[in-house]
Amino acid sequence: MGSDFKKLSDSIKPREQLRDAVSPSELNSEALLAILLRTGAAGCNVLETARRLLDAFESVGELVRSDWRTLDRHIREYNTLHPEKKIKGVGMLKMLELAAAFELVRRGYEKESEDIRRMKIKQPEDSYIVFRKALQVGEEQESFFVLPLDTKNHPLCTAPLRVTYGLVDQTPAHPREVFKAAIRWGAQSVIVAHNHPSGDPTPGSDDVRLTEQLVAASRVIGVRLLDHLILGDSASADGRGFVSLRKIGAVAF
To answer: Burial level of 54, CB count in 10 A (0-12/13-18/19+)?
Structure first.
């Protein structure tokens, strides 16, 4: 990546940003693309290469819809128009790697393209479907999610917001993180969830205590907490893979 790139702080380097982030959504498109590119070229580090490649397309959406031939055409056109800052180091191998990554993304969205913002959350099972998709397969660390809702119980965002990740022997979340996310999205209400990596969704006393704290905070802030789901797997507890603290009456919502 060049000696100048190596001198950058970890807070700027793309891989280190991703490593230290709670969620990949914290990174900008330039940093994410730089990770896929891996290296830049002489006089043009990987971040600058990613920046120029993004500039060659009208949008990130247009970029990820490209096959290798479209990538090649856009790069050639960009380099003709910008001879002073050409896209360097993106040859056939990198174009094929990018095209393969983009194709996987497209296939994933073809299977799971339903926009959750069109859903109306009526019952815990609806919430579980949304939160389950947010968890990585085989996730071994605890994550806490917030789903902000509008006045009609439609999600305001396209996926639950992961507010904490990988905590050990600590409270999985604080009301501050939960309602900061809710206020940022202009939510009228929220549903929260966190996973038990053991696979057993049975709530513990800490889960109940945290939920009580969140309910109290919600009444002060004016953003209603509708439910707290504990996510496990379908082979444990009641066989559904989750427990709704509202449904079992563990907390007065």
So the answer is: middle
